[in-house]
Amino acid sequence: MAYAQPARDPEESALRQIVRLGLDPRDVRHLVLTHLHRDHTGGLPDFPGARVHVHPAEYRAVTDPADPHHRHSLDRFLPAHRAHGPLLTPAVPDGSAEWFGFPGVARVAGLAGEVLLVPLPGHSAGHAGVAVRDGAGRWLLHAGHAYLYHGEIERTPPSAHPAFAPVQQGAQTDAEAVRATRERLRALRRDHGDRVTVRTTPGSGPASRRPRPCPRPRTRATRLGRVFSKLAALPRPRALAICAAPAVALLAVTALAPLPFAVAQPGMTADVLGSRDGTEVITIKGEKPRKTTGELRMTTIEATGPQTPVRIGQVVDGWFRTDQAVMPVDAVYPSGDTPKEIQQYNRDQMVQSQNVAVEAALKQLGREPGSVDVRLELADVGGPSAGLLFSLGIVDKLDGDGSGGDLTGGRSIAGTGTITADGQVGAVGGVSLKTRAASRDGATVFLVPKAECGDAQAELPSGMRLIPVTTLNGAIDSLRALEHGGKVPAC
């Protein structure tokens, strides 16, 4: 409950703490951030004249509309935190090869000491740790949100905290990158622990694991002592009932209070080679399409709405079920938008995804855009995650496997992934639920963005074969190999 409903004490803000130290907040000239999520940017308006240093990848994601993570990054960087026009400044890429084996390090300019931004990818598009060298030559690495619980890098085997795990999974942009980052941090502690100290958010280090002594009443005459004395004089059942009453009341309030989570489950699937509600998903004019066999199923998840109250019972139940996932609402829906605005945004994303899918498919076939009239129609579905399947469906209807056969080989194949105009496949999230939806609807093969192989394997239905993909061309090659008995990539 403390995480879901944090106490917001203005006295704990950086501004108030600086004032209590007798310093002038106007003298703050530089702020170094690991990333630009809302829980790290709330204090930026308090220092409007300061430069805000971030890793170049995070800077691009927020400022460049062409960056694939742009919309997602802006959703996490609240308008109220950037309305004053913060002086975002990308750190300067360091010419040195690596920092303890970590590539892509950038140096924060304008500071007297040595401060580096070390890429720790996965949590955000350009998430980075802040490395500071002390006077003795040792390094302190603040790892940001690369992990939240000390057991994730300090224990063997690693262990995740049950309260943090679903929050982390919902907020991350690249699950595979998160796992790789934590593995590298474990290696850093193991191999260079004498030179580097790794810490993350407050409360995750060794200090948080030291037991605090419980205060004792000074004398039996204290108020607490008198209460205990009265309880001791009562019959045991009555004393237990009185002691249990506050706990029962707390549990009742907790059970009734809505929490900022969404509960997701497997959604519908649709064969892009066929029709839905009597309408062909892919129609082609100007050229006779091929007759296809098999299925190419796009997959979805269904989540509780942005304003649907989710109670603690649903959250606990969802954490223990394999056919549901609990995620922060902000990880599913853009913050600050109304349900109507969210629906419109998802529709716009789907339309854009369809247009890009057509362009990618025609480029793959060596055809000029507009040489064939391709229309895509899939009602009541939003978002960009069907891009890969749309492109594959267009290729199958126009060219098949290139040698007279079908891309599917007559199989029921499902998948997910965004697509760019040049055929790059991107991660989408929710793949463990999408594999279940695919299996439910008869698919036996699932095309998954390579970065999400780990998530897809976690709860993989029996009999489902995973094929990792990074490009449209690679996906086509894999399907051809599957049909003709060649070597097929595996997660």
Summarize the structure.
This protein is α/β, with parallel strands linked by helices.
Question: What shape does the CA trace take?
Answer: elongated
Report on the biggest sheet. Answer: 6 strands, mixed
Mean of pLDDT = 81
Strand order of the largest sheet: 4-5-6-7-8-9
Question: Uncertain runs with pLDDT below 50, 5 residues or more?
Answer: 1-5, 202-222
Q: What is the strand tally?
A: 21
Per DSSP, the total helix count is 17
- Termini gap: 37 Å
> Which structural class best describes the helix and strand composition?
alpha/beta
Structure report:
The protein has 491 residues and is an alpha/beta fold. Helices cover 35% and strands 18% of the residues. The chain is built from 17 helices and 21 strands. The strands form 6 sheets. The chain has a 6-stranded mixed sheet, covered by helices on one side. A 6-stranded mixed sheet has the order 15-10-14-17-20-21. α3 packs across α4. The two termini are 37 Å apart.
Describe the protein's topology.
Elements: H1 14-20, E1 30-32, H2 38-41, E2 51-54, H3 56-63, H4 70-76, H5 79-82, E3 87-90, E4 92-93, E5 106-107, E6 115-119, E7 128-133, E8 139-142, H6 151-154, H7 165-171, H8 175-192, E9 196-199, H9 223-233, H10 236-256, E10 261-271, E11 275-276, E12 279-280, E13 282-285, E14 295-303, H11 312-320, E15 325-328, H12 329-332, H13 339-364, E16 373-376, H14 387-398, E17 412-415, E18 418-419, E19 425-426, H15 431-440, E20 445-449, H16 453-458, E21 465-469, H17 472-484
Parallel strand pairs: 1-2, 2-3, 8-9, 14-17, 17-20, 20-21
Antiparallel strand pairs: 4-5, 5-6, 6-7, 7-8, 10-14, 10-15, 11-12, 13-16, 18-19
Helix pairs in contact: 3-4, 13-14
